[in-house]
Design goal:
With about 250 residues, this protein is an all-alpha fold. About 65% of the residues lie in helices and about 0% in strands. The chain is built from eight helices and two strands, in the order H-E-H-H-H-E-H-H-H-H. Helix 2 (about 45-55) runs parallel beside helix 5. The structure holds NADPH dihydro-nicotinamide-adenine-dinucleotide phosphate (NDP). NADPH dihydro-nicotinamide-adenine-dinucleotide phosphate binds next to helix 6, helix 7 and helix 8.
């Protein structure tokens, strides 16, 4: 079996696992944050848990870039966009989390760590080693341009919504409040919507199968969780929850 064939078997298996995870998460919300439940092992402080889960994504992608030795403009653009999200997610976001936030069980941290290691391998190895190199003209291709606009829009929505959620808790508080205004009037989890839009943009701008599988996995992780958030909000704040959707305005 050639390296490419082995790669595509792994990618297909990873996509299948994403579908399975989607079905499981529809029944059982991942046990962290407001859905935390006992029985999932020791609980790590959220800041260290997030950094521990996410570091393989920025480090792995940088390693594949270095190993591939492709220093062309398109490869650099792919790296810069990926790292813009993941350097923030692994090394900045964890330290912005409010001290009152819930911890993350070890089982969830290990699952996140494994996901990020495999996902950064699938994207990095493909873009910087296995795929045919992209000509510089790709930077002017409508798919790259439109995908980058979508990616940056999703990133802005994700960062802004995460900031708004953090701001709901004053120092020393651990309670939840109903976020208001902007996209929060339309969906319960605009931060998840932004994240999903971002990786759809990534799939388009790289025009790659691993990019598409990553977008599928992001939906598989975040759509059931947004639905669980909405259910929780309706039970906890029946008067204030309104008619907002879970993830996609007017649809889901
Ligand atoms: P949540 O929206 O559940 O929580 C984000 C932070 O805000 C937590 O610290 C949470 O505290 C706090 N918070 C949320 N809602 C409220 C509220 N109503 N009142 C007060 N504080 C609140 O997001 P996640 O923790 O699930 O995800 C964090 C980031 O990681 C997001 O940007 C998400 O898109 C991304 N992510 C990406 C995934 C992927 O597959 N690509 C998978 C999972 C997350 P507490 O912890 O106490 O609830």
């Amino acid at each position: 079996m050639s390296e490419r064939e082995a790669y595509f078997w792994l990618l297909g298996g990873f996509a299948g696992l994403g579908v399975l995870v989607f079905c499981l998460l529809l029944r059982f919300a991942a046990p962290y944050g407001r859905h935390a439940r006992p029985g999932w092992g020791p609980v790590l402080p959220p800041r260290w848990a997030w950094a521990a889960m996410e570091w393989p994504a920025p480090v792995g992608m940088a390693a594949w870039f270095a190993l591939g030795g492709r220093l062309d403009a398109v490869s650099v653009a792919f790296l810069v966009l990926w790292e813009t999200h993941y350097v923030h997610r692994a090394f900045v976001y964890p330290f912005l989390i409010r001290p009152g936030s819930h911890g993350v069980p070890l089982a969830v941290v290990l699952a996140g760590l494994a996901f990020n290691a495999v996902n950064s391998y699938l994207n990095g190895c493909w873009l910087f080693t296995l795929s045919d190199p992209c000509p510089a003209s790709w930077l002017g291709d409508p798919r790259f341009v439109a995908g980058t606009v979508v990616f940056v829009t999703g990133l802005a929505v994700n960062w802004h919504a995460d900031h708004r959620l953090r701001s709901l808790r004053g120092p020393g508080r651990t309670d939840y409040r109903v976020p208001r205004g902007g996209l929060f009037e339309l969906v319960v989890a605009p931060n998840y919507l932004g994240e999903w839009v971002e990786w759809v943009g990534w799939a388009v701008l790289t025009w790659s199968w691993p990019g598409a599988v990553f977008a599928l996995w992001t939906f598989a992780n975040l759509a059931p969780r947004a639905v669980a958030h909405r259910r929780w909000l309706r039970e906890r704040f029946p008067e204030e929850s309104g008619n907002r959707k879970a993830l996609i305005p007017f649809l889901l």
